[in-house]
């Protein structure tokens, strides 16, 4: 999740840099508006898009591999259960605090947004309402403020009639162009990503651009000199509300006058928008060429050659040894049973059926954890994993690690088998610390008896691999 958020921040920063360096001073106002509305949404969507065509045509040596946690050999017949992350009190508290702070931030941002709406509603109720050409005009007593919100234009009663004419012309452009919708979009982004300063910069840029658009259209319908004088005559006291289009804004007036006096940009400069393409393409390549995206394809392409290679190695080993032990013969016969059609039902293999361990990818009916009966195959797998994780997280004694002064990230791999009677057996633990190994063995041995898996109508054993991960802070 953190990696995803970082990608969003990087993309938004790149998009804003392109805008500020190459596009902001151009007079392609409508194009710039589209750019500022589309790019923040693109920055949210692009990190999650993966294109298989890119994976196929980029050589592996040029692919950037994202960090990954490998929890087992991809060619193993083990069923890889989801990692069980055991959190001590400190890490749980940190996780809870992070989620809590994010939610509190969103709640406060939402309350601020509601307060701004309340101020507008209060102003609407305090003024005198009239209707001109489908627009609602609210005349506000004892003030000289001027702004618009959706199809409503607010103007102070103390404004002169000349100024009211220019302001009305200007604000009608905001209304007809639906500029309030743009600002509301960024208010929503500010609520969700309240910690992201780039969203606030985006909103500032779109607000400035909207003033340029309204000025450019308004000045074409009135006297340009008179319009300048209205901008320069005085600075009006307008409440700062981020999602309204205020006519008089001290910080914007200089930029608006500069943009009004600027000659139209040449059409050839529209090619600058093509700068967006390398940013988008780079992100698509980054997100598409990860190990997770193409691991399955790599496995399917290489599995046959790997199997053939192993068979050849087996032939060589048997030829060199000359004969096989009873255990080796049993294992080879078991393998033959699993690869033969209806092998489990063939009387020839009756003596090795109990040793059958069906790979998870082909087993017809997976083992069932107590309480997960009556579900579909996929739901049974999910229920199994959830209950195993819950059981281990509850039973594992974290104090074992603390007593041994273990620090940092600890990882344990537990292999166990659910045999054809549903019992847990053949437990193997892979970890460096003997105390952790003993604790993992204890927990695994306490797993309840399951309903065994079955294949071709015959109960069979299934091997699982369970990674257990936790971290001890210093």
| Helical coverage, percent range | 40-55%
Residue ranges: pLDDT <50 for 5 or more in a row? 58-77, 234-239, 290-303
Structural class based on helices, strands and sheet pairing = alpha/beta
Strand content: 5-15%
What's the domain count? 3
How many beta-strand runs?
Answer: 12
Shape: elongated
Count of helical stretches: 15
Largest sheet: 5 strands, mixed
Report how far apart the termini are. Answer: 25 Å
Order of helices and strands: HHHEEHEEEEHHHHEHHHHHHEEHEEE
Mean pLDDT: 77
| Whole-angstrom Rg | 34 Å
What is the structure about, briefly put?
By secondary structure, the chain is α/β, with parallel strands linked by helices.
Can you characterise this structure?
The protein starts with a helix and ends with a strand. Helix 2 runs antiparallel to helix 7 (197-219) and helix 7 (197-219) crosses helix 9. The protein is elongated. The protein is built from 15 helices and 12 strands. The model is unreliable at 58-77, 234-239 and 290-303 (pLDDT under 50). It is α/β, with parallel strands linked by helices. The chain has helices at 2-23, 29-45, 52-57, 89-126, 161-176, 179-192, 197-219, 224-233, 250-260, 276-288, 291-321, 326-339, 377-395, 399-403, 434-445, and strands at 79-80, 84-86, 128-132, 135-140, 146-149, 152-156, 245-246, 408-418, 424-430, 453-455, 458-460, 462-472. It has 3 domains: 2-70 and 145-286, no CATH class; 290-323; 377-472, Fusion Protein Consisting Of Minor Coat Protein, Glycine Rich Linker, Tola, And A His Tag, Chain: A, Domain 2 (2-Layer Sandwich).
């Amino acid at each position: 999740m953190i990696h995803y958020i970082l990608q969003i921040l990087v993309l938004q920063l790149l998009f804003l840099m392109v805008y500020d360096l190459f596009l902001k001073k151009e007079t392609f106002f409508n194009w710039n508006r589209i750019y500022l509305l589309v790019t923040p949404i693109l920055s949210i969507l692009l990190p999650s898009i993966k294109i298989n065509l890119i994976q196929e045509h980029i050589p592996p040596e040029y692919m950037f591999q994202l960090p990954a946690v490998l929890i087992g050999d991809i060619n193993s017949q083990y069923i890889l259960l989801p990692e069980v992350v055991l959190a001590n009190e400190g890490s749980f508290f940190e996780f809870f605090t992070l989620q809590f702070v994010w939610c509190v931030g969103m709640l406060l941002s939402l309350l601020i947004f509601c307060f701004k709406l309340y101020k507008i509603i209060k102003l609407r109720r305090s003024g005198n309402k009239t209707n001109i050409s489908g627009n609602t005009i609210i005349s506000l007593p004892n003030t000289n403020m001027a702004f618009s919100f959706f199809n409503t234009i607010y103007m102070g009663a103390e404004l002169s009639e000349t100024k009211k004419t220019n302001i009305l012309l200007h604000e009608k452009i905001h209304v007809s162009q639906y500029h309030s919708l743009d600002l509301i979009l960024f208010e929503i982004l500010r609520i969700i990503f309240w910690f992201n300063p780039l969203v606030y910069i985006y909103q500032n840029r779109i607000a400035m651009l909207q003033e340029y658009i309204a000025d450019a259209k308004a000045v074409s319908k009135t006297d340009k000199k008179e319009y300048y004088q209205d901008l320069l005559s005085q600075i009006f006291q307008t409440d700062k509300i981020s999602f309204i289009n205020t006519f008089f804004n001290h910080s914007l007036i200089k930029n608006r006058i500069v943009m009004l006096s600027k000659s139209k940009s040449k059409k050839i400069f529209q090619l600058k928008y093509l700068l967006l393409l390398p940013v988008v393409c780079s992100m698509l390549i980054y997100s598409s060429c990860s190990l997770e995206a193409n691991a399955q394809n790599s496995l399917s392409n290489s599995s046959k050659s790997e199997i053939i290679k192993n068979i050849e190695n087996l032939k060589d080993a048997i030829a060199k040894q000359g004969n096989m032990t009873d255990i080796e013969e049993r294992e080879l016969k078991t393998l033959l049973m699993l690869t033969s059609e209806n092998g489990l039902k063939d009387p020839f293999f009756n003596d090795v059926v109990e040793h059958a361990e069906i790979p998870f990818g082909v087993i017809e009916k997976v083992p069932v954890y107590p309480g997960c009966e009556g579900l579909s195959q996929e739901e049974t797998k999910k229920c199994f994993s959830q209950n195993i994780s819950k059981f281990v997280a509850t039973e594992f004694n974290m104090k074992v690690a603390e007593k041994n002064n273990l620090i940092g990230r600890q990882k344990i791999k537990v292999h166990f088998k659910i045999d054809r009677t549903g019992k847990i057996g053949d437990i193997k633990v892979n970890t460096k610390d003997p105390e952790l190994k003993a604790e993992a063995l204890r927990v695994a041995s306490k797993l309840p008896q399951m309903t065994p898996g079955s294949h071709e109508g015959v109960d069979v054993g299934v091997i699982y691999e369970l990674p257990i991960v936790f971290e001890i802070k210093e």
